[in-house]
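Sample intake sheet
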Amino acid sequence: MTVLTNFSEKAHSDSNVSELALAPRTSPVSDELRALTHLVEDACPCPMQVSFTFGQELKISIDVRTLEEVNMVETTLPRLAGGLFDNICRSAIPHHAFLKRVSATVHK
């Protein structure tokens, strides 16, 4: 009687057993959010942190450091992707005195 201490030893030593090919994982939501992030980053080439929230609708938050960057983001967002972003507003970020936030609703 043979006792296996490691299942992979048996799998590799048995010529009738082959490894399963794993299909690549798809993540359409993550891919879409990543594409939106790249769209904004490419249109506004300033240092920023982009994040998303979802309640009743998808919202994007873009955190920047200067008022000039806020103005650039505010004027650029409405022109991207045929009006993809609307309800654009600016706000302070709690506990981050040096950052400013531009938020918008994403319609896609």
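Comment: The first helix runs from residue 7 to 13. The beta strands are 49-54, 58-64, 85-93, 96-106.
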